[in-house]
Amino acid sequence: MELMEYHKPVLLTETVDGLNVKPDGIYVDVTFGGGGHSKEILNRLGEEGRLVAFDQDEDSLVNQINDSRFLLINENFRYLKQFLKFNNVSKVDGILGDFGVSSHQFNVAERGFSTRFEAELDMRMNKKSVLLGF
Ligand SMILES: C[S@@+](CC[C@H](N)C(=O)[O-])C[C@H]1O[C@@H](n2cnc3c(N)ncnc32)[C@H](O)[C@@H]1O
Known about the structure:
alpha/beta; Rossmann fold
């Protein structure tokens, strides 16, 4: 069985070009998802560079990147400042945000995002957050 791609970022090169990545810089990807943008940032970083990524959806953890320059935080990026401070980062060189829903969230019926499937409406990106009912 062919596995469905988690998420394919559009305008990948153009978006990361906009960050103007310095090899020894510190960057944040606040919407990690399938990790496409993060991988491209890591490709442009040197050994001293660092990348911190956030995604509140625990499903995105399957896309973890095994790289000592990389840290993935499974939290809402609203806590960015606290988590950066906790990890001894006081200044960053750039932040990338690819806001919206990942293809994965649309493609898995039980996530309740898609109108293509018969499934309960859910739409929580963080499955641990409280499910509001009517
Ligand atoms: C469009 S996808 C990003 C795709 C990603 N750039 C890639 O290359 O695969 C958006 C992702 O951001 C996450 N997300 C949305 N709002 C968030 C928030 N406030 N905090 C953390 N993650 C968030 C979603 O769970 C989703 O995985």
